[in-house]
Request: fold
Amino acid sequence: MRINLDDAKALRELDTISALQDTESYDEQFKTGLKLSDSLDVSNISVKIENIVVLGTGGGSAASVNLIKSYLFDELQVPLQLNQGYTIPAFVDAKTLVIVVSHSGNTEEVVSGYEAAIAKGAQIAVITAGGKVLEMAREYNHACLLVPGGMMPRIVLGYIFLPILAILTKLGLISDKRAEVEETIALFEEWKHIYGTDSPIEKNEAKQIAIEMDGLIPVVYGTLPFFDAPAWRWKNQLGENSKLMAFWNAIPSLHHDEAVGWDSPSALLKGVHFTLIRDLEDSEKTTQRVEISADILRERAGGVRVVHSHGVSRMARLFSIVYLADFVSLYAALIRGVDPTPVEVINLFKQKMGQPLVTVQVR
Reply:
């Protein structure tokens, strides 16, 4: 079954759990996330923090942490590491801030890491919607922010990214970011009408990219040091929402290895669509590398699209790409007649591991 992306009624009927509506509501989610973050109390953390480890995996948690790392690359003065496995680094001690992030509250890798962080005497703050993680936070009296549940974890960036920022701000590790958050919210309010369901293909870059990559393997290239995280997020959303194998990398590092693969047989490369991300903070050499890459790939690949960030602040620009990517991933599923919400393979893993399945509320 094929769907016309300008048929808003057909799109909404196929989108059974309202992923499009949730994405179009990022502005409201971020407003709520900002209010919740203001209420977070971290006064029980009083030691000088020497390093930070964030426990989190999956579309919302890991994506938020990677965006934080890119966003704060030239500001945060202590190391910040994302931890997605069952164990935690050997350096974790009483001067380590461990931020425990699990939307469901039952992510087994996060629960395992949380237990290890407690054993090491780390400073702990928790962000969750419930589950085992909430029980542990209450038992040990850790700083904890309870966020709304019932949504796909990959779509709750406002309930994870903003609270992490708030924790770092309240501990004096970064400057206040409220003005940038407000600009980002304003960007969502504007661009939901440009990328949303009712915006026609001719004016909607998200729909255009989904059409371009239809039937091709998507590859997304970001740029270092600030726009690698949006490329990573884009690839993962193509996996979860679009049910597509997708790949990502970052310029300039890919020019030292992966780019040699552009010499693949023509028939193979013609089956690949490349999206390259541009930002105003890209250095002159990075900009040159992106342009040269696009030129080379246009001669070889099945499709090439260069996308540009929008906004003034770095936060707004980062989320302008994330927002575009999220819509592209939804349309890339819907155009093929695929509901973007179900994650059957993830549930298969959870079933075989004896874990709770991923569920969301029908709205």
